[in-house]
Amino acid sequence: MRVPIPLSKYWMALKEAAEDAGERTDKQELVLAILATTPIDGVALAERLRSYRLLRNADLPGLFATDENVIHLPGPTLGRKGAGSAY
Questions:
Q1: How many CB atoms lie within 10 A of CB 50?
Q2: Average pLDDT score over residue span 35-62
Q3: Domain boundaries, the chain
Q4: Which of 10, 21, 36, 58 is deepest in the core (most CB within 10 A)?
């Protein structure tokens, strides 16, 4: 299964929250626990699927409000090459 990096980080944060609450676990067990305790309700699952499909990285609860996942590339300078400052 391929997991986008921000979602993988959120998954790790969930695991760490469980550990902070005293539960020794791993990411696989966390997924299995969520699966095993999720009711089979087609309407609710359809709502979750639609929400997930519309989710943006910025929508993940507060964990990724920084630009840690942004690569900053040097941009072009203003003005023509070799010309003095325009300002």
A1: 10
A2: 87
A3: 5-59
A4: 10
Q: Residue 49: what pLDDT?
A: 92
11 vs 36: CA distance, rounded Å: 17
d(C-alpha 60, C-alpha 69), whole Å: 13
Total residues found in the chain within this entry: 87
How many angstroms separate the most distant Cα atoms in the chain? 68
